[in-house]
Specification:
By secondary structure, the protein is mainly alpha-helical. It has 18 helices and no strands. The protein is elongated.
Length: 300
């Protein structure tokens, strides 16, 4: 399956399923094989009995809905996803799929599905990706940049990163828009308002524009001004990680990895050459850990 040889994979999985007819993982893999082969009737014959006898997990509902989506049955697809969510209310995959279904219909409920997925399954990355793009494209800059940065930390090697990093940088360039900052003045006690007030207080830092150097300074000052009291009141893994990076001496390398590679690639490569040891230490540190969001940190 990893090599894309679905015909041979189906043969092997069928043999395995004959020997172990109750193997749920084998059944799901075989249904996926048939789905990739566009043999939707065969995929349905494998997955439907699992749904009907209630031995299915959330991935079964995902596959079942995909079959109906590929066969042009969006209403049935939505019905299946909603049933799956009722049974598995903490499945980020099902919320993400529902959001993508709504997005395809240009239904604004898409963002509600992705937000609920972030709340219920905070370590599932795809909801952050979709929510970040939605917010950044519709003008909700603050949550767009938060979710975009969380996504690239969850999937630091993703092929989606150049796209989302560029959107993240453009989002930061818009953060001082007066309309965004007025939102902070209207509500003085929530997480977003606290963050925007601290950011706004650093406006002098970026008086001549937002670039790699001024952004690095602004973000460092933000974390230094995110007090222990705020940290306790609004626990947020991303800010905890920033504080750790500052403590370990990796904050500049991290920010250059995040922004400089899309702002000016030749300049970034030149900086890496001059700071090869420090940058490699950061990369080793990054690769030695998994970025996961703890439960009950949803602040939106």
């Amino acid at each position: 399956m990893q090599k894309g040889d679905y015909q041979n994979a189906a043969v092997v999985l069928n043999l395995e399923l004959q020997n172990n007819p109750g193997d749920l993982n084998c059944s799901k893999d075989l249904a996926l094989c048939y789905l990739y082969l566009q043999n939707y009737n065969a995929a349905l014959a494998i997955i439907k009995p699992l749904i009907e006898n209630e031995s299915a997990d959330d991935q079964c509902y995902l596959i079942y809905s995909d079959i109906h989506r590929h066969t042009g049955q969006p209403k049935e697809c939505e019905k299946i996803l909603r049933k799956g969510i009722r049974l598995f209310p903490n499945s980020g995959q099902l919320y993400n799929e529902l959001g993508e279904l709504y997005k395809g219909r240009k239904n604004e409920d898409a963002i509600s599905a992705w937000e609920k997925g972030i709340e219920r399954d905070p370590s599932y990355s795809r909801n952050y990706y979709n929510a970040a793009k939605y917010h950044l494209l519709t003008g909700e800059i603050f949550w767009g940049i938060m979710y975009a940065e969380i996504f690239v930390n969850m999937e630091p090697s993703s092929t989606r990163n150049p796209e989302i990093k560029k959107m993240l940088l453009e989002g930061w360039k818009k953060i001082f828009d007066q309309q965004i900052m007025q939102v902070s003045a209207l509500s003085q006690t929530n997480f977003k308002s606290q963050c925007l007030r601290i950011i706004n207080a650093q406006s002098e830092t970026v008086r001549e524009g937002i670039n790699m150097e001024t952004l690095l300074m602004l973000r460092a000052r933000f974390i230094l001004n995110w007090t222990p009291a705020l940290e306790k009141r609004y626990p947020f893994k991303l800010f905890e990680y920033h504080r750790q990076l500052l403590r370990e001496g990796f904050f500049e390398s991290y920010n250059r990895w995040l922004f400089a590679s899309v702002e000016n690639l030749p300049a970034f490569q030149q900086w890496v050459q001059k700071n090869r040891v420090d940058y490699q230490l950061f990369i080793d540190f990054q690769q030695s850990r998994v970025f996961k969001i703890p439960e009950k940190q949803y602040q939106h």
